[in-house]
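DEPOSITED CHAIN:
***
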Amino acid sequence: MKDLKQKAVFLDRDGVINIEKNYLYKIEDFDFIDGVFEALKYLENKGYLLFIITNQSGINRGYYTINDFNKLTKWMLEEFKKQNITISEVQYCPHTPQDNCNCRKPKTGMIDNILDHYNIDLDHSWLIGDKNSDIICAKNSNIKNTIQVKSGHKFDNSEANFIIDSLTKENISKVIK
């Protein structure tokens, strides 16, 4: 039974879970995208573990601290908990693109860290993001199922399997049945 693999959904944060604002780190500036609670509850009820993977270069740029990020993350997780939604883990990359780290999407370090601690069935898992770097990260991690949300980012040539307007139960239930 210990070898039983679990399916998961890897979610980008900014632009997928919340309205994207430049270098968001204050609770008072955080706005959940309409419908996200219902969508994540739907996914959880379908048996998916939920993970958040987020690039947070504002930390290394000096716009906010790791403590600021952790405070916002703790608050966000409490908001999910109030809705009976469990986020299994949040992974973040504090680096800028110039740092050439292994964790900044489209590289796979954040997903690799999760895979070190969870027995995930990548063939039946999904990644949901709003940028091509999210989708490329999925492909680099051997996650075949991808959804790109339209959240204000322009993408003409998305490599995602599916494109939806936003993460709502109505939209997600058409793709993940």
